[in-house]
Amino acid sequence: MRWHFILSIVGILLFFLGLCMVFPLFFGLYYKDQSVIPLLKAMGITLAAGLSLIVCFRSVKVDYISHREGMAIVAIGWTAIGLFGAIPFYLGSEFGTFIDAFFESVSGFTTTGSSILTNIEAVSKGLLFWRSFIQWLGGMGIIVLSVAILPFLGVGGMQLYKAEVPSPVPDKLKPRIRDTAMILWKVYALISLAEVLLLMIGGMDLYDALCHTFTTMPTGGFSTKNTSIAHYNSVYLDMVFIFFMVLAGINFSLHYQFLRGKPLAFWRDSECRFFLGAVLVLTVIVSINIYGSVYETMGQALRFGSFQVVSIVTTTGYATADYELWPAMSQIILFLCMFLGASAGSTGGGMKCLRVMLYFKYCYKELFSLVHPHAVKRIKIGGKSVPEDVMRSVLGFMGLYIGLFAFSSVLIASMGVDFMTSIAAVAATIGNIGPGLGMVGPVDNFAHIPYLGKWVLIWCMLLGRLEIYTVIILLVPEFWRK
Amino acid sequence: MKIIIVGAGEVGFNIASHLAFENKDVVVIDNNLAALRHVSDNIDVQVLNGSGSSPVVLKQAGIKEADILLAVTDSDETNLVACLVANIISPTTKKLARIRSADYDEYHDTFRDHTPHIDTLINPEIEVVKTIHRIMNVPGAVDVDDFAEGRVKFVGIHLDKSARLAGVRLSEISAKIGKKIPLIAAVIRDEELIIPRGNDRLLAGDLVYFISEKDNYLDSLAIFDKQVEPIGSVLIIGGGNIGFRLANLLEEKAVLTKIIEKDPDRCAQLAERLNKAVILHGDGSDQELLREENIQNMDVVITLTNDEETNILTSLLAKRMGAAKTITKISKVSYLPLMSMIGLEQVVSPRLSAVNTILQHIRRGKVISAKSLKNEQAEIMEAVALETSDIVGKPIKKINIPKGALITGIIRNDNVIIPSGESVIEPNDRIIIFSTRQAIPKIEKILAVKLEYF
Known about the structure:
Helix content of chain A: 55-70%
Number of strands of chain B: 22
Structural class of chain A: mainly alpha
Distance between the termini of chain A: 8 Å
Oligomer: heterodimer
CATH class of the largest domain in chain B: Alpha Beta
Strand content of chain A: under 5%
Shape of chain A: globular
Radius of gyration of chain A: 22 Å
CATH topology of the largest domain in chain B: Rossmann fold
Strand content of chain B: 25-35%
Largest interface: A-B, 15 and 14 residues
Helix content of chain B: 25-40%
Structural class of chain B: alpha/beta
Number of domains of chain B: 4
Distance between the termini of chain B: 11 Å
Shape of chain B: globular
Largest sheet of chain A: 2 strands, antiparallel
């Protein structure tokens, strides 16, 4: 482990983050609100910290990054970005203590969308813009963005890419990692642009349209309104949000293929079929379940049912209705959706459809070989058999995910939080969803979680965003051995 | 520029890493997952699992947009079929195949002119034999290459402890020797490439690369205290393909050649096919046999068995028993840095030879030939100075030459000029440029040509 080198890259990332603070500053200046001074100070601190890391640890030219160093850079980089991204919140008066600001910042970068704010609309526009913007940065990955635009990260970029976008089967769209990262960000920006336009057609002003796009595309879920999307109460906007949440939950390499003129790309991909099918089936079940008991007409049941299912399964976490008032069956389905998550290679969180599919196929294979002990059977996805080691890593992931969920829930509950809130808060943060159930439901917030509990949840959000391995590996003693 | 490489073995890996460094789009195909993972973990290229001779896989790799296909697996058949399939799907893609079997030797031209239209066929064994023959004739030389049809030689030698120049500053050499010295382009010290300036010293143990006109070449070697003596006798250990080809070549040059081969059947074959060479049946590491065959009087001992470790140990044994010079064949690139440490300076590697030759063949355009140094940190190439480029018409010292690059020779109307700061390059001169890997993109710029492939 070459710490000099790792810290200098973290310095570059921080410097980059500091530059990104120009955008909220612009809005702060435009609206002439009280966010200008905290943003300016935060920008100064972040740029200075980044620069001093770069200068202090300027190391000899490095021509490769080992797998281990890649994971360390990403894990440490994300923690540092979360910390420095919190400075504007901390310096602004609305967020309270540093842990709250840190929680909000990590919740932003990891595209979770859990908030500690009780009155969002009271926060100055500049800071709210930063709160949305960091979700957009974190969604496609701030390190992927750096790989795309900073040429010197091209060497060893693959290691960083794999650590930040850990898909069970990594696919490179282009021979060079820089081009791949560039394409992903271009597709991401293009779809975002489309959403901004469609939202503005629906009557939103540019500021709100940008803020909401920046939280839809990364499946983040921060809103600038206290009542989230319910504030607008518009069928058109609900449909636009549903459409773009679904898009954000699909593997971005499929979007790329689609844009390159392969309209059947979505249909040909078995994971995408699984994801869309799951969304459809669950929407129908939930809608029927809430029809009559909560909503008078089927149209309303479909509108609110589909929005909530899509919002949770893509791990966005917007709300148009308080689903805690819905029947238990719908609540349980939504809770399970938190675990399913979106597609691999999308901006969504959760376990990812691909892993769940592989897991079920593996279970079926086990059952099959009980009936035919001598059978030779391979697990296949889209007609191609899945290598043993990929399957092992998926099983390990599922085990760790459930294990960490259980462990963290117990930790939260041990701090005096009730049963439902404990498990839902952990499920909602480790899956990067946002709102949970109980005391952290769609109309509540995370402000009342105990101090230590917030640390646990911050850790859960990072675990979920970097897909467990990159973060948990830092706890393995073997990782630190020379 | 998109390049598809079939085969992720040692040859494929090294070429891919070279090309990826120059920001080319590279796709590597192999059906060995472990080899592919090694590639994708270390080089910024795309990898594809499958057989390189399969049309489906080649299409998936994007053969239609590819400029070059390099078929470099260990299997001749796979390479040929890959080129054949590529020729059907995408006839405009240039094709290069690595062919090892000697049986195809006569058909290289046929393959080029008829289907499958393979533009270049590389036989690494032939290349290795050429390399061995070149370095055999220069004592202490690790690397010898010809430019400008052999009028300019580019030589890498190890500086001995006893050499007069060890510890001397570059600027003081001519005063010390009392005559003009060859241009020293680079020094490799502890695996690190140094472009020496006037104030830098040469140290014992350095690998010194210098450029010399052919006529002054012997004098140049003398400056480094290396004398050229004609090779009279050669002992080859290992009578495989390379051994046989080398013996064949040496027979033509009337050099006394002995081959030691373990396998009696192979010995019989060799005896049938060679006329003058002495074929000995036995183990190359057998001291008695070596002493019996007067190893201490041999000019060169060349170890060419298929076993790396045997080659290394046998060469060491031969050195200890008094052989004047050894050349060792090594396939594992990872062993190369060790070799000078244990005293085996002259090493050949079929795979590296193949990599070098392939690079040389695919880098064309206005660049006439190119060749990379031992540890691939630098390249030396011969190019035509275009009228449009920035380098013509002014003294060299006024040219903005990128750091790490050096103009080491100018060839004008068949005359070789070793340039000084005052020399002026004229249009259509051929120039020899030495450049580190980092500086190559900038060299492309000042030459005003793309260092295109093919």
